[in-house]
Amino acid sequence: xxxxxxxxxxxxxxxxxxxxxxxxxxxxxxxxxxxxxxxxxxxxxxxxxxxxxxxxxxxxxxxxxxxxxxxxxxxxxxxxxxxxxxxxxxxxxxxxxxxxxxxxxxxxxxxxxxxxxxxxxxxxxxxxxxx
Length: 131
Fold this sequence. Notes:
- By secondary structure, the chain is mostly helical.
- The chain has five helices and no strands.
- The chain is elongated and about 110 Å long.
- It starts with a helix and ends with a helix.
């Protein structure tokens, strides 16, 4: 149980903490602003420490596992070998399968006039040279 003395000291402490007048309110605002600024400073410092610590931990782990990564890369090299055995040239284009080629080669021409066009400029149509 709380005795009367404890209750009186608690109530008196509470009344003393309340600012009285405009000067007390101004001091309370300044004190709270100071606490906010100090809290922000410590949070920025803590964030910087965590960032630097995380970066150092990441660099340490990368350094310690470099040999393991080399061994794993050497083991994966034969699996990648068929892809890398080509000459390195890439020819872009469309591949026509046998079935599609056979179907298109036996189909009639859509425009019969295209068959009468000469293959090159030097080659004249036979009917024009015979006359």
